[in-house]
Design a protein that fits this description.
single chain; about 450 residues; alpha+beta; Copper Amine Oxidase, Chain A, domain 1; Rossmann fold; nine-stranded mixed beta sheet; 11 helices; about 25% helix; about 30% strand
């Protein structure tokens, strides 16, 4: 019998700094339009009649309507945006009333009034809806957040980015399920995977970390062998960007053999023969993510990570393994340097942490749901598996966790460490590097939710 643990956490909601913004609706528009699906990322640019919806460019409307700046405020066309969100727009010209419905949330605004009605409750706007050149202009921040979107503003390019946050108008996010077992064995790894009830088909990649010699805490082949072979999976890795024994093809392949991985499954060094670029949609730091040339050869990815500390990122878990881990050697540098260089690994710390979240989002977007994540919380050193002689752990092993949501998964792991009586050293490492910024930014750009329900499978 599965036991639900009450780990629904209050999310720290990251809202982009955006002081301007409004929607527009023409009085000639039809009264009501509904759409069947909602976009994850919507991008518009001032004076550009095209918008991008989940990477696809389209005209805002047939009249060439474009966002404009009026009296220091960005005015954006409401119908195209709300429809892209999956909402319904109703216009009552006689009273100057606009009613927008998205899921269970309804917002009503009136031209010239700074009062809004959200689900029957009165809210005060920072700016009243207005008519400009015969068009109805509505404030974007309020509408977007009511409908579960974060708002980003790039003043240099005059670009507005709306990203779904998973929040409702009450400010809460839908909780993701994270499965947990305290048993760290090959059998329990299979069990927590089976709890997900995933059904991957086709060519399956299992993303691991081979571990830096001679004594790193990488997940041992004996632990993962049964799962990998049950999936008929291929173990995948990419070269490092910092030197060491895994920075070149020949050396890295030798490490994979020495550590026993080539004995349990096929092994693919994905950037051995080159790399490709994945687009990063809605990112603040990156515009592209460089991954190994064989990345697209797989239909499904199982990201199998050792959760532990990290000297630069604070911690390493699902998000790091799907970002830095999947990135090619040059891609690793691009992430580490916040998108500025394809060599080296030193750069702005904040940009590095945010770039990890954005690169994982590009992987997730490309795979379109064909990915799951497992974190093993053993050998909980403050150092990562890229360190050949890591600091000996001073806290006990925890267990194995699995989820389809990497944000919820990593958040659950951090929370467990924070609650542990012997977790002080690892939490100091995480906090000293501002490591949870990666989780915060990942939620803000729509990768997943920090709220979760932890479900034990241990009877």
């Amino acid at each position: 019998m599965k036991k639900n643990l009450s780990f629904l956490l209050a999310a720290v909601l990251i809202c982009a700094l955006f002081t301007t913004g409004a929607f527009s609706l023409t009085s000639e528009d039809s009264n009501q339009v509904a759409t069947e699906s909602s976009a994850s990322v919507i991008i518009l640019q001032i004076n550009n009649p095209q918008m991008t919806v989940d990477g696809a460019a389209k005209y805002i409307d047939e009249n060439g309507t474009a966002p404009v700046i009026q009296n220091g405020r960005s005015m954006l066309p409401v119908r195209a945006i709300v429809e892209a969100m999956g909402g319904i727009v109703e216009w009552e010209g006689a009273t100057g009333t606009v009613t927008m419905t998205h899921g269970s949330d309804t917002v009503t605004l009136i031209i010239g009034s700074d009062t809004a009605i959200l689900n029957g409750n009165t809210e005060t706007l920072d700016v009243a809806p207005m008519l400009i050149n015969g068009r109805t202009m509505l404030p974007i921040r309020f509408i977007a957040e009511c409908f579960g979107y974060d708002v980003g503003w790039d003043g240099t390019e005059a670009v507005v980015t709306l990203t779904t946050s998973g929040r409702t108008s009450s400010g809460t996010a839908e909780a993701s399920t994270v499965y947990f077992t305290a048993d760290i064995t090959a059998e329990s790894l299979m069990a927590v995977y089976n709890a997900l009830e995933a059904n991957p088909t086709g060519n399956i990649a299992v993303k691991i970390t081979t571990g830096e010699p001679p004594n790193s805490n990488y997940l041992r082949p004996e632990l993962i062998k049964d799962l990998v072979q049950m999936l008929d999976g291929t173990l995948v890795e990419s070269n490092t960007a910092y030197g060491g024994r895994r920075a070149s093809n020949a050396m890295h392949l030798q490490v994979a053999e020495d550590h026993g991985f080539t004995k349990i499954a096929a092994f693919d060094l994905q950037d051995a023969d080159g790399e490709i670029s994945l687009p990063v949609v809605g990112g603040e730091i990156l515009t592209e993510n460089l991954v190994g040339i064989t990345f697209p050869d797989y239909d499904y990815y199982v990201v199998l990570s050792h959760f532990k500390g990290h000297g630069m990122a604070g911690y390493g878990g699902a998000i790091k393994n799907a970002s830095i881990g999947i990135a090619s050697s040059a891609g690793k540098s691009l992430i580490h340097t916040g998108g500025t260089r394809r060599t080296g690994f030193m750069g702005d710390q904040t940009n590095f942490l945010m770039a990890m979240a954005e690169s994982t989002k590009s992987v997730s977007d490309y795979l379109d749901g064909n990915i799951l994540y497992i974190n093993v919380m053993n050998r909980l050193s403050v150092d990562c598996d890229c360190v050949g002689n890591p600091t000996e752990p001073d806290m006990h092993d925890i267990g194995i966790l699995a989820s389809f949501d990497p944000v919820a998964l990593d958040q659950a792991c951090v929370d467990i460490v924070a609650a542990a009586s012997d977790g002080a050293s690892l939490m100091e490492r995480i906090n000293s590097r501002n490591g949870t910024l990666t989780i915060d930014h990942a939620e803000a750009i729509g990768l997943g939710s920090k709220q979760y329900t932890l479900v034990s499978i241990d009877g």
